[in-house]
């Protein structure tokens, strides 16, 4: 008999909203897992949704279209090459009001809602770091481009000056001394002095 993969562990609910929540879990090492399935039902026992994903290594799934201020129960199963695992332990959570951002502090610390809140804060911090890093990299790329553009522009303007220099020299009037030479007496011609008597 072929063993089924072990059930997922550390199932938790994060990023709670009024109409959505993210389920995450871990899979014990050593088994090939090719997908997962999640059963979602309301606290009153009414089965609402069954999600099955294969050909994925994802360890999280976002649940959409939830009702606000409603209690839900979820269980996760691993899908292996030869079948599905046992279902994980049941996890209870309650969606928020549309006006609420976070659940009330009166919840028990063991409540997955509170655990999910902590993880959500870490994720948001991580996302902010990624956004800041991307913005800094873009700023660096733009600064580098501007610097290169200035260098290219300076080179072009200096090349234009070099090209313009010979033509400007050609355009300046040349001074010829031929006119001055013509006005002088030639040294080989003797000068005659006329004396009146």
From TrEMBL:
<dbReference type="InterPro" id="IPR052120">
    <property type="entry name" value="FNDC_type_III_4/5"/>
</dbReference>
<feature type="compositionally biased region" description="Basic and acidic residues">
    <location>
        <begin position="156"/>
        <end position="181"/>
    </location>
</feature>
<protein>
    <submittedName>
        <fullName>Fibronectin type III domain-containing protein 4</fullName>
    </submittedName>
</protein>
<dbReference type="GO" id="GO:0005886">
    <property type="term" value="C:plasma membrane"/>
</dbReference>
<keyword id="KW-1133">Transmembrane helix</keyword>
<dbReference type="GO" id="GO:0005576">
    <property type="term" value="C:extracellular region"/>
</dbReference>
<feature type="domain" description="Fibronectin type-III">
    <location>
        <begin position="7"/>
        <end position="98"/>
    </location>
</feature>
<feature type="transmembrane region" description="Helical">
    <location>
        <begin position="128"/>
        <end position="146"/>
    </location>
</feature>
<dbReference type="Pfam" id="PF00041">
    <property type="entry name" value="fn3"/>
</dbReference>
<feature type="compositionally biased region" description="Polar residues">
    <location>
        <begin position="102"/>
        <end position="112"/>
    </location>
</feature>
<feature type="region of interest" description="Disordered">
    <location>
        <begin position="98"/>
        <end position="117"/>
    </location>
</feature>
<keyword id="KW-0812">Transmembrane</keyword>
<keyword id="KW-0325">Glycoprotein</keyword>
<keyword id="KW-0964">Secreted</keyword>
<dbReference type="InterPro" id="IPR013783">
    <property type="entry name" value="Ig-like_fold"/>
</dbReference>
<keyword id="KW-0472">Membrane</keyword>
<dbReference type="InterPro" id="IPR003961">
    <property type="entry name" value="FN3_dom"/>
</dbReference>
<dbReference type="InterPro" id="IPR036116">
    <property type="entry name" value="FN3_sf"/>
</dbReference>
<feature type="region of interest" description="Disordered">
    <location>
        <begin position="156"/>
        <end position="185"/>
    </location>
</feature>
């Amino acid at each position: 008999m072929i063993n089924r993969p072990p059930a997922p562990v550390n199932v938790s609910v994060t990023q709670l909203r009024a109409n959505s929540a993210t389920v995450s879990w871990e899979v014990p090492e050593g088994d090939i897992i090719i997908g997962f399935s999640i059963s979602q039902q309301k606290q009153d026992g009414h089965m609402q949704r069954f999600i099955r994903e294969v050909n994925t290594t994802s360890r999280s799934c976002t649940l959409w279209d939830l009702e606000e201020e409603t209690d839900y129960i979820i269980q996760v199963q691993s899908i292996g090459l030869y079948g599905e695992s046992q279902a994980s332990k049941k996890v209870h959570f309650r969606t928020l009001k549309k006006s609420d951002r976070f659940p009330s502090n009166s919840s028990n610390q063991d409540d997955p809602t509170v655990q999910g809140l902590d993880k959500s804060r870490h994720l948001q911090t991580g996302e902010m770091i990624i956004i800041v890093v991307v913005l800094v990299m873009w700023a660096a790329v733009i600064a580098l481009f501007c610097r290169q553009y200035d260098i290219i522009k300076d080179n072009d303007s200096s090349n234009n000056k070099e090209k313009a220099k010979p033509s400007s020299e050609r355009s300046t009037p040349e001074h010829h001394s031929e006119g001055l030479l013509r006005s002088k007496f030639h040294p080989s011609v003797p000068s005659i002095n006329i004396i009146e008597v």
